[in-house]
Amino acid sequence: MAKKFTIAALIALFTLPAFADDAGGYKGGETPPRTQDSGYKGTEDTTSPSISEVKTMRDGAWVTLEGYIVKQKGEQSYQLRGRNNETIDLVIPKKVFDGKTYDAEDQVRMNGRLRHDGARRWVDVEQLGAP
């Protein structure tokens, strides 16, 4: 009797997903905007800020930048060129590159903390990849 009850319970348990509604997830809503910025469909606030805007942020602010690494200035020091040919210094530890190689023609997206030292501004990069 216990075996039959156990088998019936297992059959009921494994056939339950077969009766689930197969409707899926999100189906409706507003039409997305027609403009596309930086690979994302959405509003204008999805774009990364310009370098001049980043330079005005507080010390330690988390920033996301897109651009081109155009120059190596030291062992872990680089220069990023963004929109409007603005530049900012970067500190990118070797582990952040994760074995990937980038050159001045590869657009990158990076996340990191903005740092201040007097008038000098730079970003300590913690994540780096393709946009």
UniProtKB/TrEMBL annotation:
Keyword Signal: yes
Organism: Mixta calida
Taxon lineage: Bacteria, Pseudomonadati, Pseudomonadota, Gammaproteobacteria, Enterobacterales
Signal peptide: 1-20
Coiled coil: none
Protein name (record): Bacterial OB-fold domain-containing protein
UniProt keyword annotations, A-Z: Signal
Family annotation (Pfam families): BOF
Residue segments, region Disordered: 24-52
